[in-house]
Every structure is written in structure tokens, then in C-alpha cells.
């Protein structure tokens, strides 16, 4: 086994030790983009290490090398500027790249889920294979195979044993009309014009060779077409313009599952870094999961304190303001965006909100719950992130649970640390409304 085979074997061993998916979601670096890179443990390859302190020695050579019998001095230590010093470089990290479809499938298996896209289906038209035909088109799309087949069929339909028909015309007293009727009755595809021309070309001395058609039939055999083709080949094939057909792609109508995910996050002053991290650990896998499940997935990110505004994903998890909290402002903005861009008849809708459950007085009861009831969606979910446990004024999640918890499309999850993240994801995804 050579060095290359060793290297591949070590890599294979390392990839089998990829970080567990749940562990990655709870504690791994989720990154900032749409790519899913799960760390794998790479086995270190064996290598030779040279000690520069042992590079001295005795020998003969050119210019300055010791002569036999000369004392040998102590080797000089390296100045440390050389490249590749042992122990200088940190360990390499490699990653297993997972696409959203694979992530969704593995998360289903890991959490015991088996979810399929539900709700709206939009019929989309797209170009399929070049299976349809038209009489005009560019030369590059000419269906040569069909043209050849049509010409061949015509060639075979026009072929007949010419010598047999000429012998028929040598029957005593036969007229061109009688010969033509005989040919048609016996399925010989000869034209009347051809018979007229052939009759005129027969010498007078050969006319009357056969006393009757029966006598000619008894002495002359009509050669089958297949036998004649094997003997003579096909020769030329007559192509005609009416046989030309040009290929163009058929229009395929497919059901398209579209999903829009509204991610809402509290960015008020009480949302410290540890709370923000728990929101990211919950929302990012949910985004990956739904991207893998649906044909088309779009995401909207809304940040709010006492007011709400739409932000880009790269800013969503890092924003922190010093204002108060009014969760209803985010749902009001979400309702406007869904109404304008993502009509319920065409889109599957998911509305995910997260925060520390702290809200302004009576806002949950008077504004948020009616808004959640009014926004048509496959799923409404609220994730409470309280690393130190529930605060006295953190009642939003409890109020939503009490008022809407019996609905099939409302989920409430509590995350106090990374260990709770996968359980929260399961609670959310297993609550999706079947209708």
C-alpha cells in the first residue's frame, strides 16, 4: 500500500467521525451564510521530523569541511527562521459539506420526524425534453432520425419487382390498363405511367412471350422485397420537405412548493449575547431544514424593540438596541409583508419569533395574540430564550401558550441553554398544522 492509499484511508477514518448533527446544532459554529459545514476529525498523518540540532557531523567535502583528525565543534542551534519547524503549526480542521436537502433528511432521522411539504402548491411551467415537434425551426433541431424513417418508409412503399412487371407486359394481348389492374390487385405499387413507358420499351419480338397471365405466373417468380434489398441494398432514400420536423422542448407543468419564513427577533436591551446566541442556534437549523424541504424558500428577517424594521440576515443575529419591547410591532410588519409579497393562496407561511418573553404591559394579550390569529400561516412559533430561567416579567410565552396552545399551528418552546435547542426544534416542527 503506497502513501496515497494511506492518505485516503486516514481521510476515510476521519470522515466517519464527523461531529454528531445534534451536537453541531447545540455547540458548533453555525457560520454566517447558507453553507452547512460540519467539522470532521481528521486523523494526523505520520511524517518524519528532522532535529536541526543533529545536523552536524564528520566528513570530507569542499571549502570549510573538516579534514580527517580535525576536532569537530558543537552543532549550532537553528535561528528559528526556517519554515516547517516541528510544533509550529496548529492542527488543521476540515469540514463535511452538507446541502439543505441532506440536512433536512438527517434531521428527520435524528429527531424521529417525517415531515413533507404541506399547504399551497403553485403550478409552474418549465422547458422539458425535446419531445414535441413542429414543421419549422432552426436546422440544429431538425429531427434527422424521423426524416430518415419517413424517407425509408416511402422508399419501401414504392419498391416493386420491375422485371416481374415487365414479364407481365409480355403476356400476349395484354393492355397497359389490364396490367395496371393486375398489379393493383396483387399489391404491386407500380404507377400507370411507369407501365405505359415500360410497354413502349418492350421490343415487338418479345411481345406475346406468354400466352396468358397464368402461364407467366407459373414460370416467373416475383422476388420478395426483403430478398431484393439484401441483394442490392437500398440505394438512395427519397427525402421530401413535408417529412421535415423540428424538435422543441415540451412545456412541463410541475407542482411547486413555495415557502416563506418570517424570522422575528427581539433586539431590545434585555437581549444579551447569550440570549441572541440561543436564537441563532434555533432559527438557523430551522431555515436550513425548510430550505431542504421546499422547492423555493424565501426568508424575511424582522428585528424589533418598541418598533420593528426589516433587516438582512447577516445583521439579524447581531443587532442590539437600548429600547423597550413591543412584540406586536413585529407582527404588524410581518402581516404587511405577507399581504404584499406572499399571498396565502400561493405560499406556505412560517412565522418564527424569539426573545426573552419580556413585553410591554398588555401588548401580548391585546395586540400580539389577535395578530397571530389573523395571520394565516402553516405554523406560528415562539421561542423563549432565558439562560438563567424565567424572569418575573417574562410572561409572553406563557400567555401565548395559554391562549393559543391548543391550536394545531401554534408552538411555544423554551430554550435556557444549548442542550434545549434540538428539543425546541422538534417541538416546532412536530406541531405544524396538517391542513
From TrEMBL:
<dbReference type="Pfam" id="PF04285">
    <property type="entry name" value="DUF444"/>
</dbReference>
<feature type="compositionally biased region" description="Gly residues">
    <location>
        <begin position="56"/>
        <end position="66"/>
    </location>
</feature>
<feature type="region of interest" description="Disordered">
    <location>
        <begin position="54"/>
        <end position="92"/>
    </location>
</feature>
<dbReference type="InterPro" id="IPR006698">
    <property type="entry name" value="UPF0229"/>
</dbReference>
<feature type="compositionally biased region" description="Acidic residues">
    <location>
        <begin position="80"/>
        <end position="89"/>
    </location>
</feature>
<protein>
    <recommendedName>
        <fullName>YeaH/YhbH family protein</fullName>
    </recommendedName>
</protein>
<feature type="region of interest" description="Disordered">
    <location>
        <begin position="114"/>
        <end position="139"/>
    </location>
</feature>
<feature type="compositionally biased region" description="Basic and acidic residues">
    <location>
        <begin position="114"/>
        <end position="123"/>
    </location>
</feature>
